[in-house]
Each structure stands twice: as C-alpha cells, then as structure tokens.
Amino acid sequence: MDSRVVVLLADGTRIKGFSRIFNPIDVTFHLKLAGPDGETGEKLEIRLSETLAVFFVRDLAFGRERRYEPEDDLSPMPRPPSVGGRAARVSTVWGEKLVGLTYDYRSEDPGFFLFPTDPLNRTLNLERAYLTRQAVEEMEFTEPES
After folding, report:
1. 122: helix, coil or strand?
2. Of the four listed, 32, 117, 137, 144, which is most buried by Cβ atoms within 10 Å?
3. How confident is the model at residue 24 (pLDDT cuts 50, 70, 90)?
4. What is the mean pLDDT of residues 58-86?
5. Would the pTM count as exceeding 0.85?
6. How far is it, in rounded angstroms, from Cα 82 to Cα 91?
7. Hey, where are the domains in the chain?
8. Contact between 59 and 38 (Cβ < 8 Å)
9. Which one-letter DSSP state was computed for residue 107?
10. To which H or E segment does residue 123 belong?
11. Which of 46, 41, 67, 53 lies closest to 6, judged by CA?
12. pLDDT tier, 146 (very low <50, low <70, confident <90, very high otherwise)
C-alpha cells in the first residue's frame, strides 16, 4: 500500500505524492507525484541527502494551516505508545517545532522518525515524520507526557 507523503527538500521545495517503499537506509526513494485529482503518473527518484524531511500524512489535500474539526472525515490521531520511545522537542531549520516520540534516534544516523504527540501537530494531519540530521536545528529530550 502506498503511503501519502509530503517531502521537504533542502532547497525549501515541498512535493506531495505517494511512496510504496521508504527505507531510510537506502540512498534514494521513489515518489509518484500527486495532483489535485490524485496521482499524476509522474515518478521521481529523490535522494535522501537532498531531503530535510518526509512527512507521512493521512490526507494530501489537508492544508498545513488547517486544524482538525469534528465534522472532518479524519478521526482523531491515536497517541503513539510511549514504551521504548524517547520524548523529544525538535526545532527545525525551517522554523517549525515538533513534539513527539522517537524510537530509533541515534546521533550518528542520518535521520530518525518522530511520531507526533503534541495535539496541534496531530491535528495537522501528520502521522509521523522522518527528519534528516540537516533538518534539526536543536533537539531536546524531555519527560514523556502521561
């Protein structure tokens, strides 16, 4: 099954599309571009070295500034399990602050997954984010919220 993703490139470009396989160990991943009516058929190969973040979202048409409303078709996001995770606050180079849990962070790795726990981030349609080391301005580990 294809994941809906929004890719933020190092030059600030955002690309929306679908990715069947995303493995951060690979040098590249493939993206089928999305247009207003779904897939465009165009495929891109994207280098992780040229990427700041890959956001896995539930709805590609959902605007970043918009918030979840009860009448929306999206159910509330479940809170990720805290067992085995480390709570973190991440300040990004593009000025966004993300709060969530990471299960695989190692400072020597090129990136890590962050599962949002902050209600504002969860209502912004975000399921999880893969952040590259170059995307992180500052990272602070915190106590997990109950």
Report:
1. helix
2. 117
3. very high
4. 64
5. no
6. 21
7. 3-59+82-142
8. no
9. T
10. helix 119-123
11. 53
12. low
Extract the tokens encoding 104. 């695989």
Q: Report the pLDDT value the prediction gives residue 40, as an integer from 0 to 100.
A: 72
Quick check: 49 pLDDT over 80?
A: yes
The predicted model gives 7-26 an average pLDDT of 94
Structure tokens at 27: 């040098």
Distance of alpha carbon 89 from alpha carbon 91, whole angstroms: 7
Alpha-carbon distance of 5 to 22, in angstroms, equals 10
Q: What is the mean pLDDT of the chain?
A: 84
**Nearest Cα to Cα of residue 56 among 132, 130, 122:** 130
Distance CA 133, CA 112 (A): 8
Residue with tokens 């009516």: 37
